[in-house]
Every structure is written in structure tokens, then in C-alpha cells.
Amino acid sequence: MEAASRRANREAERKWKAQQQAQIAANAEDAVADWRTHLRDIVSLHVNTIDYVDWHALKRQTAPPSPTRQSKNEGAAQDKLDLFRPRLFDFMSGGSQKRQQKLADAVGNARKLDEQEFLKSVEQHKQAHAEWETDKALATRMLAGDISAQRDVIGEMTSWKDEGLIGTSMSFSISENFLHAVAHVHDDDVVPTFRRKQLQSGRLSETKMPAGERYELYQDYVCSVALKVAGDLFSVLPRNEIFVTCCAKMLDKSIGHLSDVPILSVQIVRETFKTLRLSAIDPSDSMKNFNHIMSFKRTNGFSPIEPLKPIS
């Protein structure tokens, strides 16, 4: 009995250790996957831009048609009444006259239902027509280059508010001649300081990420933000070029404190932007396609620059 008990205990311990090892391996696999996903996300912000708004199509769109009265329900009820014939066993349900009256009452109720549905469609049409008028008026203003309309559209955009990786805030300078978007991006701690991999044993291994690799990932992140901002603005504004400046907190050696300074400024032209295969480009290398200012070294990262347009 004691030998059997010891065998059972050893088997239970073996199973417990196997379960623990499997859990450790699963946790390590998840940790590595999370690390890889984060790195992918911060350098591919530009890949998914918001839906394109075709202002010309909105301006051409015709008004929604007015609703017409329908008698679908009344017609169906009337058909049943017209087909009414006395039956031998009508006395079991109150007689033929009672059954006929129920069908006649159903016609009246169906008529009321048709009226209710019509009134509902009238209200829906009023709302749709009001939205059509609003969209058409906004499209007209946008295509005329109305600055106020462009500010309104930018104010309604939520892509940057909802996307925590973009940065901490956005600001804009808008005139007839140019639009300058200023993105206050995260500092370099958005990039992990470590590498992760899963060992053959299943355990998680974390090692320090080389400084040069980390700086390059941060550069890709900043450039991805610039492309994302321009792409989203091109989607909703009829502008042919967008100036984007990215600012980050860096040590201001003149005062010894951290302050927001510009580290990338780029003039992105719509026609050139449209030729980019966003899912395949290297964000940093793509800056070569545009007029830009960026001071970056693999050994120490970004340095402050003077933006292409003043930051107001």
C-alpha cells in the first residue's frame, strides 16, 4: 500500500511539474508575442489611414426622395376580407358575421399601421434631408477652400484622440497657402529597452536592446507618426500638401530641463504620398521622397531641428 501511495504521489508531482512547465512556456510565448506586436505597431501607424472622404461626390449627391404613402398592410387585410366566405362550422367561433367583422376590423387596424409607418418614414426623411443639406453645404465649403470648414472637419476627427501611440497632443496652423500639423509624439521610452525571446526550455529570456537598434526603432516610430498624420489629413481635406512637424521631450542643455522640441519636419505632397506602398516602406527611408529636415544619428538618436514652418 505504501509503495502504491508513493508511486501515486510521484505521478501527481510529475504531472504538476509538467503543468507548471507548460504554463511557463505559454506565458513566455505570450510575452514574446506582446513584445513583437508592440514593436510592429509603433512603426506601422501609417499603414492604416482613416476612410477617404470624396467631397466632390458629396457635393453632387442628390436629395433623398420623399416618402410615398403605402397601403401594403391594408391591402393584405382587405384581400383576406374579400376572400371571406361563410363556413359550416362558423357557429363554433361565434358565427360567420362575427368572423367577418374581425376581418373588417383588421382592415381598419392595418390602415392605421400604414399611416404610422408613413409618418415614421416622413420623420426619417426629414432627418436624412437635413443631413444631406449639411453634407452638401460642408462639401461646397471644403471645395471652395474654406478655412473654417477645414478646422471643423479636423476638430471632428477622432483617429488621433483614440490612437494612444500617436502621441500626447496635436495642434494645427491653417491658412490658404499651407496646413501645418504639429504632433507631440512620445519620447523614446515608447520603444522597449529590452529584447525578448523564448528559450528551448520554454522559459522567457530578456536581454538589453542595443542603443543603436533602439534609436532606429524610435526614428521609424516618429516617421510613421508623420506619415499617419499626413495620410489621415489627405483623406479628409482637399489639400495637395501637408507640413508635419513632430516634437518630443528632450533635454534643453541651455536650461538643463526637458522641453518639447521639433525633431522632424516634413512637407508631404499628396501625389507622391499616393505612390507609396505604405505596408512595405521603411518609414525613415520614405522621408527621402519629401522635402524634410531631420537630424538623426544611430549613436545618439535625434537632435533638435528648425521646422520647415514656424510652430505657432
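Second entry:
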Amino acid sequence: MKLFYTPNSPYARICRITAMAAGLMDRIELDWVPLRTPDSPVIPHATLGRIPLLVDGDLALSEARHICAYLHQKAGTGPTVAAYGDWPAVAAEGHSLAFLDAITVWSRETRRSEEDRSAFMLAAEAERAERYLAHLDSTLVVPAAAPPLNFNTLCLVAALGMMRFYDLIPGWRAAYPTVAAWSDAYDAVPAIADTAPSQDALIPLTR
């Protein structure tokens, strides 16, 4: 199997955490590829060139949720995705993924040149993120033992990691102490610590 990715992509991070937790890293080749280039090595496998992309023989899977489900099936262990029929779990995944999407849009907007930034987008995504953080702070339960890893929790891990890396809400730890404690518990998981965003992997936004 081969996973095409960029190191600071939160969606690729979810896939990498899943692969590590499932014990599949010795069966997966990681291929760091640039974004939005016409000669991307991803394009022969998937015309749109979207990453993360997992290639296994003739199969080319995009979308982090699908990749995680496939890796879990291959390994028979590791992070899971919510099963259709368990609608409360599916709903929770949807909310967490929407939060990750919001943080991703917000962080991308902050990395545009000043003249290209949208004040409306910055304000809207900031308000949306703060609103959801307040919801999380009143509903999250800080794990007392090994934190459960699934697509829902990994979306939150990836979102909070991006928020922290780009310093989107400087006072978030004091404002949302339950979220901070929850995040600390997950950050201690080796696969999560090993995939944290880094300055070395920071790639300027390409449009």
C-alpha cells in the first residue's frame, strides 16, 4: 500500500495515526507530494490529484474516513469509523469533521497574503470555531485511561492540533479547560505525538 500525503494535512494525519495504531506502517509506503501541481504523482491514480490518497493495487481511496475504514478492515484492529445504523455515532462524526473543516478553512485563510484575505471568512470561521469549542467544553469527557481512538476523536485531535499550530485562538486553554485536558490526554498517545504538525513541513499556501 502507498499513502500519498503532505505532513501538515490534518486529514492525512488522521490516516497516518490510524495506520500506526493499527500496526500497518510496515505495509504502507509514505509518499510526500506537493499540492496542486500538474505533474503530481497522484494524478495517474486519481484524476483530481486529491490527497490523502491510499493506493492498494488497482484501488485508489481518497477521503480520510474511507481510508480509515479500509485500514481498519485490513488490520482487523485500530481506529474505527461509525457504522451506518449507529446514527448517534455517525452524527458525532459529522459534527467533529465539520469542526475540522472549519479550522482548516480558517487556517488556510490566515495564510493568504493580506490583500487576498477575506475579513468575512476570518470572522465567520472564528465565531464558528469558538461556538463549537464552547459546546465541546460542556460535553467532552476527559479519558481516565487509554483514550479511545476512532474517526470521531481523531477529527477532534486533528482540528485542535491545527488550531494550536497556527495559534488561531491564543487563549483557548484557559477559556476551554475541559477541551485542553482532553487534548492533553490524546497528545500523550505516541501515534498522535509523532504526527503533530511541524514548522519543517510547513508549505506556503498555493492557490
